[in-house]
Every structure is written in structure tokens, then in C-alpha cells.
Write a structure and sequence with these properties.
The complex is a heterodimer of chains A (298) and B (350). Chain A is an all-alpha fold and 298 residues long. Chain A has 12 helices and 2 strands. The termini of chain A are far apart. Chain B has 350 residues and is mainly α. The chains are: A mainly alpha (298), B mainly alpha (350).
Chain lengths: 298, 350
């Protein structure tokens, strides 16, 4: 096979690995959005904070990697419940703008507090995955990337089973569908909201731990979450399969743009491509691939 | 003669008057007098803060026209500000054009960018609009850094001194008067616009766009107009910023700046001219306040020595946004109105 084609395949596959991360982050966004109609701009901060927490659990407290991840997940879950209770609950019934701004306020507050507490140095996560890359037929993949793909698959299957068969999952879907009816059916909407935030933050924490392995840990990790916005818009704001497909698509597009356009235009194209895609999707098909078209009644 | 109390207006003209009572007129006069003599009594740092507040006020007015009055969320206003600042910087440093070309030109540049964003965004609202404007901001930030041969990229541009018809405004005291006059013009312009059909159409769109359209407000026309006017204000503010700072760098125009302007209008009061001014001044002086607080705490706890940096200010912005939205959604202007009404109705409670 010629090298051009191999280069393309290589970009595609590492794009899928990156896309899996975007998909995880996007699922975190969509879970909250679907159930509570809130777009949580502070999701990136949760990712960054969990990366820091996991790092310190592994290095300062010398915990084994898996235990550290578990603890990080639990902490993130509690953060989710606390955020819902303290920041978002008082905003019930407020206009969209106010709710969006509260989460943005929370996001810059958390980010700067993280800067004050953890400092601005780049930290390198002691990776639990072996360093040597896997080569198959000329395609090179790091073990981290393979683990990312596997865990994303595992987590998303778990979600699928949880939402399809478990009682709580059904309650969550019911609440997302219609809050009033859910209340009438005896579902505690308050508890569902708290749990949704916890689940979403745990997803963000998993994404954060993997991101920490993929790149260095610093405050810039929050930006990755913002790059996942295009994924949820492309997938349609309120669709979980949409978020997954959108995430993977954005990962591939970003990598292809980085591989081909960087040589022509100059560095940094990779980082803006998602936003250009977002802008285009909003112009052409604002409700995304799987979103429901909003019909307004007067 | 009937005793006038509370809102007592006999004609429509009275209702839309710029200065509602004699009192407001005289207080405004006194306030202007203080502003005129400020450079002679205050120390230069206060004058500098007023200068920065003036620029912020114009930008906050612009954002408030779009977000507060028309209800269109914009998370990318730093982009218009950046376009204005770079417009002035490039035109005045490359072509050595005077300010009366540079400033309107940056306004028009920003307004055409506003048109570019505004027209495609007509179909979007709420969350979608927030994301579209945010991505516009990111793209502009990228262009400013990458378009090296015009913007000089990360090296930044030095801006020549503002030359007022042969009289260089080279000190903060001199540029102070220029800024005060322009800010006053911007405030009067915005207040006036809000009394006319245009302003009321904006408010109607914010309150319920479909109802507004039914009543004969052309959504397309007025939404685009809101984008145009708002980005024009921000462009001019950006141009002034370039003149005041004398040097601009892509790092000044990040997403954080957009959030800072949003903080201004939220803390000040959404959909209120007075609120934009309050908010702009408040957010500009809050870092000074925190600096003072940090110094105070260093005296108490010597371990805090040298711990103060910019991150504290940003954390304070975030906290302020949250607290105001949760506890006082109408902002400082809301508090102000409440106090005023309380005094006006005294000794009755309502």
C-alpha cells in the first residue's frame, strides 16, 4: 500500500481514539442537558480537577492506579451532587441565559481556584500503561489509545444497560421525558437530578483521567471540554448516541485537519477546526444529526 | 395643584423624557462637574481607572444592547472588541490615519463582523446562539494570532499616541477628557435609542419574539440591527482601548474578556443603561479591592505573602456572577432602584 493511504488510515484511527474521549465528555454534557435542560459549562473544570486529584492520589498518596481512579470517581460524584444542590437548584425556573451564565461563572471560579491551589506547572501523569506502541500493518497505536477505546466502549455499554433495564435508569429517562408526569408516577425528581449530576461528573472524571495520560496535566485541560461542544451540537443536543457519533466524528475531522491542513495554513488548525465545524453545523442543521427539531407554539 | 408622588405622568412626552425630574438633571450636572475636576484632585491612578472604566462602559453598553435589551446571548463579544482594537492599531500604526478615521473605521469593521455573525445566527436562540457566538470568538482569537503579517501575531502591536487635531493626547489626564466626552455620547446615544421605536422593538423581541413579530416587529431587521449596533459599540470601545493602552496583544482578547463583559452587565443589571455603567465601573475596580484585601490579610497572616495574583480576580468574577444571578438577578441597578423607591415612598412602604 502507498504511504499516503497509510497516513490517512493512521490519522483516522488516532482520530477515533481522540474521538472516544470527546464522546465520553459529550455524553457527560448530554446526560445533564437531557434531564435538566442545563448546559453545564463547568464540565471542563471537572475534567481538569479530576485529573489533578487522580495525579495527587497516585503520586503523593502512592495509591494503585485503579483505586485512585475509583476514589476520583467517588469524589467527582459528590462534587456533582454538591453543584446541583448549591448552584443549580436555586436557579430553577430562571431563563436560559441566567442558567448558562451561572455555570460559566462556576467554571471560571473553579478554574482560577485550581490555578491558585495546584499551581500552573505541567505535571506528567505516571502512566500505568506500558510505553511501547502496538504496530499492526504499519499503523502505530499507543497502548493508552487502545485502553481509551476499550474503556469508552465498556462505559457506554454500561450506560446503555443501566438506562434500558435498571429502575433508576428508567426513572431518569422518564424525568428527561416529562418532569410533571415523572413526579405523578412517584419518581423523586430531586433525587434523579442529583444522581444525574453525579453520573455526569463521574463520566467527566473518567475522561479526565485518560486525558491526563494522553497529555500533560495543567489548567489547559478544561479547553478539551469546550472542544467537545461541537460533538454535542453535531450529534443533536439531546441524544446520547448522537453525542457518541458526534464525538468520534469530531475526533476524526480534527485529526485529519491537523494532518493535512497544518502544512498549508500553519500550526494550530487542529484546535479551531471543531469550532468551524460547530459554526457550520449550526448554520446548516442547528438541531444536529439526531436532535429533535424544536417546534414552537404560541 | 395635585401633590405629585411616585410615578405621576400626565402625558406620553413626560414618560419618555430623558431626564425625568429636575433632581436627576441637577445631580447629573453635579456628577459631570466632579468628573471635569477629577484630574486636578485625584491621583493619576484614579484617573487611569476612570479611563479604563470608560472603555469598559462603552463595551458593556454594546453587550447590554444585544444581550440585556434584545435577549440574544453573546459569548463572543471579546471578538468584536478585538476587531475594533486591531482595526485602530493597524490603521493608525501602518497608515498613520488620525483618530477620526480610525475609531469609526474600527466601529464599522466590528459592525460588519457583527453582520457576518448576526445574519446566520437569526435562526438560533438560547444555547445554540451562545455556542455559535462562542465559536466565533475562538475563531477570531485564532485569526488574530495566526494572521501574522497584519496583526503581528503574538508580538503585539504598539499603537501611536492619539493626536487630537494636532494636539497629542499623550498623558492619561489629556486622554481622560476625550474618553469622558465619548462615553457620555455613547450613553446618551444608547439611552435615546431605547426611547424610540427601535429600542422598544428590541425589548419586545427579548420578552417574547413571536409576540413581537405578531405585533409587526420585523425580527430579521431588528435582530440584525441589534447585532450591528452592539458590535459597533464594542468596536469603538476596542479602538479606544488600543489608544489608552498604547500596546495590544492577542492575550488581551480571550474568552475570559467576553465573560468579563457578561459579568459587567449581570452585576450591573441586564437591560439597563445605568446598570451597564455601574457594572463596568464595579468590575473595573474590583481587582483593586481584592488587592487591598490581600494586603490586609498579609498583615494578619504573614504566610499569605506574595500569594496574590490575577487568578484571585478571575475567581472573584466567577463568584460574583454566581452570587448575583442567584440572589440579585436585577443587579446593582436593581438594588439602586429599590433604594430609590424606598426613599421616594417614605414613610410608606409601597
Amino acid at each position: 500500500m502507498n504511504t499516503g493511504f497509510m497516513f490517512f488510515i493512521q490519522l483516522m484511527i488516532s482520530g477515533i481514539a481522540l474521538g472516544c474521549l470527546y464522546a465520553l465528555i459529550a455524553v457527560g454534557f448530554v446526560l445533564i442537558l437531557k434531564a435538566t435542560d442545563i448546559l453545564n459549562f463547568a464540565q471542563g473544570e471537572v475534567i481538569m480537577l479530576s485529573a489533578f486529584i487522580c495525579y495527587f492520589l497516585v503520586t503523593t498518596f502512592h495509591l494503585p492506579f485503579l483505586l485512585a481512579v475509583l476514589l476520583t470517581g467517588i469524589i467527582a460524584g459528590f462534587m456533582g451532587v454538591a453543584t446541583e444542590r448549591l448552584v443549580l437548584r436555586p436557579m430553577l425556573g430562571q431563563p436560559v441565559f441566567a442558567v448558562v451564565m451561572v455555570t460559566i461563572g462556576l467554571s471560571i471560579f473553579l478554574r482560577s481556584m485550581a490555578g491558585i491551589i495546584f499551581g500552573y506547572n505541567n505535571l506528567v501523569f505516571p502512566s500505568p500503561f506500558p510505553n511501547e506502541a502496538v504496530r499492526t500493518g504499519g499503523i502505530v497505536l499507543s497502548q493508552t489509545e487502545i485502553w481509551i477505546m476499550l474503556s469508552t466502549f465498556l462505559l457506554i455499554t454500561t450506560f446503555f444497560i443501566f438506562f434500558k433495564y435498571s429502575r433508576m435508569g428508567l426513572a431518569m429517562r422518564g424525568t428527561a421525558d416529562d418532569q410533571d408526569v415523572a413526579l405523578l408516577m412517584g419518581i423523586s425528581v430531586k433525587r434523579v437530578f442529583a444522581l444525574i449530576w453525579a453520573v455526569s461528573f463521574v463520566t467527566a472524571a473518567v475522561a479526565g483521567v485518560f486525558l491526563a495520560n494522553l497529555m500533560v496535566i495543567n489548567l489547559g485541560l478544561t479547553l478539551v471540554a469546550i472542544s467537545a461542544f461541537p460533538a454535542i451540537i453535531l450529534g443533536g443536543l439531546e441524544s446520547i448516541p448522537g453525542a457518541i457519533i458526534g464525538g468520534i466524528a469530531i475526533g476524526i475531522i480534527e485529526n485529519l485537519a491537523g494532518g493535512y491542513l497544518d502544512q498549508i495554513i500553519g500550526g494550530g488548525v487542529k484546535d479551531v477546526t471543531p469550532f468551524v465545524v460547530l459554526f457550520l453545523v449550526l448554520m446548516i442543521r442547528p438541531y444536529g444529526l439526531f436532535g429533535k427539531r424544536e417546534i414552537e407554539r404560541v | 395643584m395635585a401633590i405629585r408622588s411616585k410615578t405621576f405622568r400626565e402625558s406620553y412626552f413626560e414618560d419618555i423624557k430623558l431626564f425625568k425630574t429636575m433632581w436627576i438633571k441637577s445631580w447629573m450636572g453635579l456628577f459631570l462637574l466632579v468628573l471635569v475636576f477629577l484630574p486636578f484632585m485625584g491621583d493619576p491612578y484614579i484617573v487611569y481607572l476612570v479611563n479604563i472604566s470608560c472603555v469598559a462602559t462603552i463595551a458593556a453598553l454594546g453587550l447590554n444592547i444585544l444581550t440585556g435589551f434584545t435577549g440574544q446571548i453573546s459569548l463572543g463579544h471579546a471578538a468584536f472588541f478585538a476587531i475594533g482594537a486591531y482595526g485602530t492599531a493597524v490603521i493608525s500604526s501602518r497608515f498613520l490615519f488620525p483618530f477620526w478615521i480610525c475609531l469609526p473605521a474600527s466601529g464599522v469593521l466590528a459592525a460588519s463582523a457583527g453582520l457576518l455573525v448576526g445574519i446566520p445566527c437569526l435562526r438560533l436562540k438560547g444555547l445554540y446562539l451562545a455556542m455559535a457566538t462562542m465559536s466565533f470568538g475562538v475563531v477570531v482569537e485564532y485569526v488574530v494570532i495566526t494572521w501574522d503579517n497584519v496583526t503581528l501575531g503574538v508580538r503585539g502591536i504598539a499603537v501611536p499616541t492619539l493626536n487630537f487635531f494636532g494636539y497629542p493626547l499623550d498623558s492619561i489626564n489629556k486622554i481622560y477628557y476625550f474618553l469622558i466626552v465619548l462615553t457620555a455620547l455613547a450613553i446618551i446615544g444608547a439611552t435615546n435609542m431605547m426611547r424610540t421605536r427601535v429600542g422598544r422593538a428590541f425589548i419586545a423581541i427579548r420578552d417574547r419574539d413571536i409576540a413581537a413579530e405578531v405585533m409587526g416587529v420585523s425580527l430579521t431587521q431588528y435582530k440584525v440591527m441589534a447585532f450591528l449596533i452592539s458590535s459597533f459599540y464594542c468596536g469603538v470601545a476596542g479602538g479606544l482601548y488600543a489608544y489608552v493602552m498604547g500596546y495590544i496583544h492577542p492575550e488581551h482578547f480571550t474568552f475570559l474578556l467576553s465573560v468579563q463583559y457578561l459579568a459587567m452587565i449581570i452585576v450591573g443589571g441586564l437591560g439597563s443603561i445605568l446598570g451597564s455603567i455601574f457594572g463596568a465601573v464595579f468590575i473595573t475596580i474590583i481587582p483593586e479591592f481584592i488587592k487591598g484585601l490581600a494586603q490586609f490579610f498579609t498583615v494578619l497572616f504573614p504566610a499569605m505573602e506574595g500569594k496574590y495574583d490575577d487568578a484571585w480576580n478571575i475567581a472573584a468574577f466567577g463568584l460574583l456572577i454566581m452570587l448575583f444571578l442567584i440572589f440579585e438577578p436585577r443587579g446593582l441597578a436593581g438594588i439602586w432602584t429599590r433604594i430609590k423607591i424606598c426613599f421616594k415612598n417614605w414613610p410608606f412602604t409601597y
